[in-house]
Design a protein that fits this description.
alpha/beta, Uracil-DNA Glycosylase, subunit E, 5 strands, 5-stranded mixed β-sheet, 200 residues, 12% strand, binds uracil
């Protein structure tokens, strides 16, 4: 059993917050164990809670369309949420629920080691950019602690609001170039290291 599968098992038995009493299924996340890109949404909704899979409703369909616009399928990327259980009635996640789930998401990032973390929506963004406004920073990558974060609007918001939709459609198109630049930075760092080693 992989470490990620063990983590999913742990999440399935979690009782750290009250959402464990109302959930049908936990929604840990899914995707390749070493995906280049990790998308982090907010919380499972109705369909996700039924199926135990992230982004399987209308927002998920739109996310798949966005991925297709950069020639990716959902199987190519890792998709998860800030919290792993559905808040009743799809209300916003509470601070204590986000806090209870924090170690799970941290561990997921540690295990998958994505080159790029795309935050979807305010709650996911706030985890990495605590006082930022999404309208200001969406579509602008930022490197912190060796990881590149890329904030975008949430697909559910963008689906119904034309001004966000144009932004999210534009922001996703920057991802391929961003990945190329990340690879180039890694190559440059490697050649620099090799050069430094050859001095000895
Ligand atoms: N919205 C989210 O943030 N996550 C899901 O999994 C589905 C909808």
């Amino acid at each position: 059993m992989s470490e990620l599968t063990k983590l999913y098992e742990e999440i399935a038995h979690c009782t750290r917050c009250a959402l464990s009493q109302s959930r049908a299924k936990t929604v840990p996340g899914e995707g390749p164990e070493h995906a280049d890109i990790m998308f982090i949404g907010e919380a499972p909704g109705f369909h996700e809670n039924q199926q135990g899979r992230p982004f399987v409703g209308a927002a998920g369909k739109f996310l798949e369309e966005l991925l297709a616009s950069i020639n990716l399928r959902r199987e190519d990327v890792y998709i998860c949420n800030v919290i792993k259980c559905r808040p009743p009635g799809n209300r916003d996640p509470l601070p204590e629920e986000i806090e209870a789930c924090r170690p799970f998401l941290d561990r997921q990032i540690e295990l998958v080691q994505p080159k790029l973390i795309v935050t979807l929506g305010r709650y996911s963004m706030a985890r990495y950019f605590p006082n930022a406004k999404i309208s200001r920073i969406h579509g602008q990558p930022r490197k912190m602690g060796g990881v590149i974060y890329y904030p975008m609007y949430h697909p559910a918001a963008a689906l119904h609001q034309p001004r966000y939709r144009a932004d999210i459609e534009r922001d996703i198109l920057k991802i391929p170039q961003l990945l190329e630049e990340i690879d180039q930075m890694a190559d440059d760092a490697q050649s620099l290291q090799a050069e430094q080693l050859s001095l000895f």
